[in-house]
What does this fold into?
Amino acid sequence: MDIEEVIKRITNGGALIKEEAEELSRLPDKESLYEAAHRITKAFHSNKFDTCSIINVKSGKCPENCKWCAQSAHFKTTAEVYGVLSPEECMQQAVFNRKQGVGRYSLVASGRRPTDAEIHRYIESYHSIRRNVPGLKLCASLGLCTEEQLNRLFEAGVTTYHCNMETAPSYFGNLCSTHTQQDKEATLAAARRVGMRICSGGIIGMGETMEQRIEFAFYLSSLGSLSIPINILQPIPGTPLDQSERLDEEEYLTTVALFRLINPKAFLRFSGGRAQLSDDTQRKAIHIGINSAITGDMLTTVGCTTPHDMAMIEELGMVNSNDTDWEVKHDH
It folds into this structure.
C-alpha cells in the first residue's frame, strides 16, 4: 500500500476504506502508520487540544446489564451508590475544574433514562454553573433521554450530548442485552434535532478483535461523531469482564492511529482507563492522534490529574484551546 497516497487522499477530503484499514493494522512495523496518523492530525487540527471534565452526578443501581460497568445493579461491586447530587456540589466541582484550565464540564448519571424530576434537578445544576462559572461549556451524559428532556437541557445551556456506542455493532450484543445501539442512535438523533452537538465513542479491550475495532471506527464515522472518547477497559472486580487481560500498549496505539485515519476530523479523546498507560505511551498517543481528553477522576476509576495533563499538553507543544467546537452534523 502507498501510505503517501492514503495521506494525500484523506487530507484532500477523501476516505480510507475498510480493506485498507485492515491492511494497515497488519503492518509489521507500525511506525509508518503512526506517522501517517500524526500528519493527518496536524493537517486537520494543528496543535489544538480540547479538555473536559466530568462529575458522577448519580451513581449505582443501574438496571442495564453492561458487562464492563461497576454501576450495574446486576453485578456485585464496590461502586458507590447515591442519588442526584445537589446543584451546589456540581457547581463547586465546576469551579474547581475551570480554575485548572478545563474548558468543558459534563454531568454524568447512571441509569437507563432520567425521570423528569431528575432532569429538573440537573437543570438547576446547569443554571447554577452558568451563573458562577462563565465561559465553561456544558455537556451532559444522562442516558436515553427523550427529545423533550433534551430540549429542556439545551435551553438550560447544554451544548453537547454524550452517549457512547461502546463497541462494534457485531460485538455489542455480547456485552449488553438490556438496550441496543439503535436506542442510543435515537437519543443522539434527538439531541441533534434540538440543536446539540454529539459526543460518542466507546471502550477497547473488552475482547473484541482489531477488525471489530476498525468496524467500530467506521460506525462512529457513519454517525458523524466528531468527539470520540476512547476508553480502555479497566477490569472492575465483580463485573463479568473482571478477568480480562490488560490491553497491550502497542495495540492501543495502533487503534488510535486507525481511528484517526478513519475519523480525520474528529477529536479523539483520552478517557477512562488510560492511567494504565505509561507516560511515554500517552505522549506517543498524542503525537499520533489523541487531541482531547477527559481529565481528572473518571466515574468509578481514578483518572490522570488535571495538572499532570496540562503539563504534558504544554510539553508536547499542544495548546489547550476549547474554542474548538466541532461542526454540528445533522441527520441525512
Summary: DSSP finds twelve helices and ten strands in the chain.
